[in-house]
Write a structure and sequence with these properties.
The chain has about 190 residues and is mainly alpha-helical. It has ten helices and no strands. Helix 4 packs across helix 5, helix 6 packs across helix 7 and helix 8 runs antiparallel to helix 9. Helices cover about 65% and strands about 0% of the residues.
Length: about 190
């Protein structure tokens, strides 16, 4: 499976996405991407596995992954964040729909001060008809990572690593599923 990922090794991802070097202290290796991600999770700064997943996934899948992560934390999110998650969910299900573009544009224009606001910003940054076209905004993967990490920061310390691990495993599974889908699309 790892051979079909869009980035076969950690070094491939770092070379294709230079911004990841500014978001992580870990140095890339020739390890397959999934092994590298799991090594990050087991390392000194396990949160870097979240950042790596955000860059490993295609943008739309990364936004969906962030949505799913935050959906597991709804009791820790306020009503505005829950509304933003609904906007993100609708956009992911139909990203080209003109019905969702105004909502995503409005959500993405908000200051990213909460977990779901970061994810909405990532949805707005998504390429191909991006709702927000400001070059000063962070890459979608950085916004996804910030949103998931901001949500994770709200989890009780004693539960944080288990939630972090579950989020990373969900990201890995999604990366593998996306690789299969891409493979089927090109066959």
């Amino acid at each position: 499976m790892a051979n079909e990922l869009r980035f076969k090794t950690a070094r491939d991802l770092f070379m294709a996405c230079p911004a990841v070097s500014r978001d992580m202290v870990a140095l890339p290796t020739e390890q397959p991407s999934i092994e590298f991600c799991r090594a990050l999770l087991a390392g000194r700064v396990p949160e870097e596995a979240i950042t790596f997943c955000a860059y490993l996934l295609p943008e739309r899948a990364a936004v969906w992954w962030a949505h799913e992560c935050l959906s597991h934390l709804t009791v820790l999110l306020d009503s505005r964040d829950q509304e933003l998650l609904a906007v993100v969910r609708d956009w992911v299900s139909e990203p080209e729909s003109p019905h969702h573009r105004p909502d995503v544009s409005k959500a993405a224009a908000m200051p990213p001060t909460t977990p779901a606001a970061w994810v909405a910003l990532a949805a707005g940054r998504h390429g191909n008809g991006s709702a927000v076209e400001a070059p000063a905004l962070p890459p979608a993967a950085r916004a996804v990572s910030a949103g998931v990490l901001a949500g994770l920061a709200r989890v009780a310390l004693e539960d944080r690593f288990s939630v972090l691990s579950a989020f990373v495993e969900m990201g890995i599974q999604l990366a593998e599923t996306e690789a299969l889908r891409q493979s089927a699309d090109t066959s």
